[in-house]
Amino acid sequence: MMPSAPDTPAIVGGKPVRTKPFPKWPVHGAAERKQLLKVLESGDWWCGTGKKTEQFEQAFAEYHGAKYAIACTNGSTALEASLLACGIAPGEEVITTPYTFVATAGSILRVNAVPVFVDIMPDTANMDPDLIEKAITPRTAAIMPVHFAGLPCDMDKIRSIARKHKLKVIEDACHAWGGQWKGKGLGAVGDIGCFSFQMSKNLTAGEGGIILTNSRKLANLAGSVVHVGRKAGHEWYEHFVIGSNLRMTEWQSAVLIEQLKRLPKQQETRLRNTAFLDEKLSRIGGLKTMASEKRAGRRSVHIYIFRVDKGSFGIGRDRLVECLNAEGIPCHGGYPFPLYRNPVFQDLGKIDSPLARLIGKKLDYKKVNCPEAERICKDVIWIKQSTLLGTRKDMRDIVTAVKKIKAAAPLLT
Predict the structure, then answer these.
(1) Residue 139 known to be catalytic
(2) Are 53 and 69 in contact, with CB atoms under 8 Å apart?
(3) Which of 166, 237, 352, 367 is labelled catalytic?
(4) Catalytic: 101?
(5) Given CA atoms 213, 180, 338, 362 in this order, what sign does their dihedral have?
(6) At what angle are helices 250-281 and 30-42 packed, to 10 degrees?
(7) Ordered DSSP codes for 93-162
(8) Would residue 247 show up in a list of annotated catalytic residues for this protein?
(9) Residue 16 burial by Cβ neighbours in a 10 Å radius (0-12, 13-18, 19+)
(10) Residue 230 bears catalytic tag
(11) Are 118 and 140 in contact (CB under 8 A)?
(12) Which domains does the chain have, with CATH numbers?
């Protein structure tokens, strides 16, 4: 059998562009080990007795220019606690995006409020602010923008709409650690903001979350929800709101203290590699990279995404994903459909819940259609943030693999 030509795609028997793995995640070392040993030997493993959680809260708030931070179990519970702190009542509506993880809208449902989906902009994957006012009704109580992949939403327009209609702005900044809008830290631009430290995230302790705000009132309310309804300065068994035990442990905080120190340099590497990929991939016919945001200031990059036009590229998104993985380039297609197409939303009206009984037949997501969100779910490719910690050679391999596949596209349909 004759050896394959060097330009033969790996998926049809050629040699892959690379067999070397991209950088592993998470990144850790002696600093994290030392912090964890301090917690172990102190015996103060819980945030109520130790000081690591308080130290991390202060450091994270300072890094984002926020006055207050409340650490908690994960990004999902951060969103729930924020909604409760903002006083979002059962049956009230919260406007958000359909192109996000289920926890965004799920948190709204968990407090018996109603997610209202507004379509995205095709060049950013963020909620289109020009469509928000059309979605506002007398029951609207808040807007929950998601800074998808780390690219900030247009917070000027969103805040202006919120002020006009007296709505709260709850930022889902779970992709935006260290990101900014006009020099101000994301998560601290709206009324309240939330972050995740789940395993895949740029800042991680395996799990965890945090809430930021510049409002003492909201900080106290969110802190009480996280801390079983307690208030600082009052009796231990005196509870003021229906809260839950959503506290972060000292173990997680110890790791996050050191992970936060690593973040700026890692973000510089991701940004540098994002700029390189944008430049190179945008020159390849049939591919479209995402727009940048000049007003952003410091940028977080959680996912590198680009879109595929089957007619111009020669093969569709799904086939390109298969071919790239065969070439040693890890990637995938992201969300298979917009959030409202998940069974949990499609069947919501059938479920006997307080919300379903309250809203009744009005709770029907089968009628929702966001065309841009539908399209992006069919043509976008995601490359995870740890891949972006690679070298310039690693990034060139991504570009080489894409060019190789495009050249052989007629053989791959």
Answers:
(1) no
(2) no
(3) 237
(4) yes
(5) positive
(6) 160
(7) EEEE-SSS-HHHHHHHHHTT-EEEE-PBPTTT-SB-GGGHHHH--TTEEEEE-B-GGGPPP-HHHHHHHH
(8) yes
(9) middle
(10) yes
(11) no
(12) 30-259 (3.40.640.10)
Structure confidence by residue, pLDDT tens digits, 72-130: 999 999 999 999 999 999 989 999 999 999 999 999 999 989 999 999 999 999 999 99
Type of residue at 328: G
Please indicate whether residue 394 is annotated as part of the active site.
no
Catalytic residue among 64, 147, 168, 175: 175
Of the candidates 56, 63, 99, 101, the residue annotated as catalytic is 101
Full-model pTM: 0.95
User: Nearest CA to 20 among 328, 326, 269?
Assistant: 328
172 is catalytic: yes
Contact by Cβ (8 Å): 386, 202 = no
Q: Clarify whether 227 is annotated catalytic.
A: no
DSSP state of 339: G
Q: What is the pLDDT of residue 187?
A: 98
Given a contact cutoff of 8 angstroms between Cβ atoms, the answer to whether 293 and 151 are in contact is yes
Phi (first) and psi of residue 368, to 5 degrees: -80, 135
Which amino acid type is present at position 59?
A
